[in-house]
Structures are given as structure tokens and as C-alpha cells.
Amino acid sequence: MSIETNIFEQVEKYETIIIHRHQRPDPDAYGSQCGLAAIIRSNFPGKKVYQVGENVHGLAWIAEQEKIEDDVYKDALVIVTDTANQPRIDDKRYAKGKFLIKIDHHPNEDPYGDICWVNSHASSCSEMIMDLVNAVGGQLSVPDDAARMLYAGLVGDTGRFMYDATTPHTMRIASQLMEHNFAAAVINQKLDSIALPVARLAAYVYENMTITKNGAAYIVLAREVMEKFEIKDASTAPIVPLLGKIVEVKCWTILVQQKDGSFRLRIRSKGPVINELAKEYAGGGHPLASGAFMPDGEKIPEYIKKLDAIAASYTGESND
């Protein structure tokens, strides 16, 4: 029995299904979680299906999260999508269900769950949800709104098909989703649009970034900068790719100071592997796209030296 068939049989078995995703969600977290929920609701209208976690204003156009009581978890199937490790799961009640399934495309360093389906070669978890649908041979249909959400997740995690994880299979899944009745161009435009404060912050980033001689770039966005531009951490996502557009840059980091003085690190690369560096700073992720955390700014100079060393040792060519 394939793992996809095993997951489908668990979905058939349970009357209550609760789907989680990671904290500080991106379009793929929302798309895979809520797209899967919509597929299950459509094919099993008698089941109780919930999508839970903190609502994020900027992603409300994809879907809304639901509030449920603790007792709903009794005898429930819990599915967690797009979340590499348990500390990152949004809503810690995920462990209260009867059966737990992990569906993810990050390196499998925390193989939690009664079923753990991880494909680190997939472009996105949204792509994997369609792989699940296709693997069970016509037993699951995909409603148009689910296709819309999964397309948003796929496009979001591939950077509109610019990242290395985009494969011919990814494009076939995108084509399959686009056969449904939704406006793909509108989703592309939404994912490419930024609010005026973010545009002004982008100008600040380009003006104040630093690029080392070895091609490592970084910028520290202190609290006073965030407050000046009236930007919250969740709104900095469009800023992250900017440094990578510069030809000379091999790898880069946006360091965003939080309200408590800690720093969230968004780390990206065109070739040098950076997820091992992220692990040194309470983080992790994909080889070319990771995140990390610092309790304060004390270790920022040390971190920048390590990032620069990674850039210096890289002998391959970047994607530019």
C-alpha cells in the first residue's frame, strides 16, 4: 500500500478531521491546509472538517481559519501540512487528536506523526496535495475553490516558478489546477502586489543593504525602521527576494527585529547551501530558503561572518 493510499484510508475512516499548518504562514501553508480541507469537504460532505490556526490578514483572500473547542479533538484525525518540526505547528492542540498525519516538503528532521509523508523534492506542499489526489485514482475530485487555493500555494512557494524546486512535474500540476474555474492571473497579481508602505520599505532596503566582497548581502530592520514605515513582521515577506535580484549577490539575509528585541532571520540563496547555518541559530528549512532566530542582536556580526564564508566557499554559478 502506498503512503498516499494509507492517508486516503485514514481520511475515509475518521468523521472529524482537523488540519493545521505552521506559524507565521505563507501562501503554501494556507493553500495546502485549506485546499486539502476543501477537497475533503467536497468529497465527504458528512464529515466535520476544520482548518485551524491564527488568521493572517494578508492571506485572508486565500481562506479563513476556524475556531474550535478542545473537545472537538476527541477521536479526531489531525493532519499537519507544510510544517517541518513540531514547535512550528500553529495551535498546540494538534497532539490531542486520535491519529496524526504529517504532510510536508521540507527536510524530514522531525518525523512526527502516525503517518509521516515527506517529499523534500516537491516544490510545495500544495503540489503534494495534488499528488495525493492523483495517487488515489479518481477517488477524490477537486472543487474549483480548492484548486484556486492550491494554485496560490504552489505559485507562492515557487516564487512564480523562478526557484530551483520548480520541475516539469510542478508545471504539470500547475496546468492541472488551471483547468479549474478560477482566475490564475488574478492570483499571480495578488502574490506580486505590495502595499505602499512595503514599497517604501523596499526603497529603504536597497538604499541601506550591505553586500560583502564575497557576495553575501544583508540588512537589519530594527524596530524603529519597522515603526517608521508602519510595517509588521508578517508584511516583510515581499522584501525577502529583493536582495537576490542583484547580480553580485549569492546568498542573503533579512534580519527583522521583533517587539521583544529578538530577531527573525529570513535566509535565501541562489546556490550556496544555507540551511545548516540556519540550524546554528534555532532555525532550519530548505537548502536555499531557510529561517532562523536570535534572542538579541549580539550574534549578528558573527552570523554575517559565517554567511560571508559560505558565499566565499561557493564555487558553482548562481541562477543569474
TrEMBL record:
Q: State the Gene Ontology terms under molecular function.
A: nucleic acid binding
Q: Which InterPro entries match?
A: DDH_dom, DHH_sf, DHHA1_dom, Oligoribo/pAp-PDE_c-di-AMP_PDE
Q: Which domain of life is it from?
A: Bacteria
Q: Domain DDH, which positions?
A: 17-153
Known Pfam families for this protein? DHH, DHHA1
Give all residue intervals belonging to the DHHA1 domain: 228-311
Protein name per the record: Phosphoesterase, DHH family protein
